[in-house]
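Following up on my earlier thread - several people asked me to post the actual chain instead of describing it. Fair enough. Here it is, all 159 residues.
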Amino acid sequence: MSVSVIDGKVLEAPVKFSRRGVVRYDYIAFERPGGGTERIAKPVTTEAVAELLTPGAEGRFYLYKVLDVKGVHGVRLAGGSERYAYPGNNAGIFLGVIAMSVAWMALRIFDRGDVPLLGVLLFALGVAGFFLTRSNRAETRRQFDGDRLRATGPAALAE
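Reply from S.P.:
Thanks for posting it. Predicted structure:
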């Protein structure tokens, strides 16, 4: 789990797909203020944040990485627009894995009287994934709310 920021301008952001409020990009290319570029491969974000991630958008972009998923959870543009939204679909997926593994283990205990090892492993994976995803969401919120740009405004980008 990690969070980071990129100050700069969006050069390219080709969308791979957009479904159920989640947008996946092929990549996002940023131009740094001091020159140079940075490219983030296969990031994920929400439709709300994606509205501000257009070529030419300049400001501060808040990134996260949890498990094998990376993406953009917040944007503060030089013009004053800002948006935070964490794509939390993975937490729901992990809850589904937990529920299915518990149901499977209960049926197996009732039917055969034993506990399937795969059920236990899936349960453990679901619990670990759920808590990692939830703690990453809390970390991204703290990062976005605690950033100095919130108090000083977009003029701080010039520093």
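The first strand starts at residue 2 and ends at 12. That should answer part of your original question.
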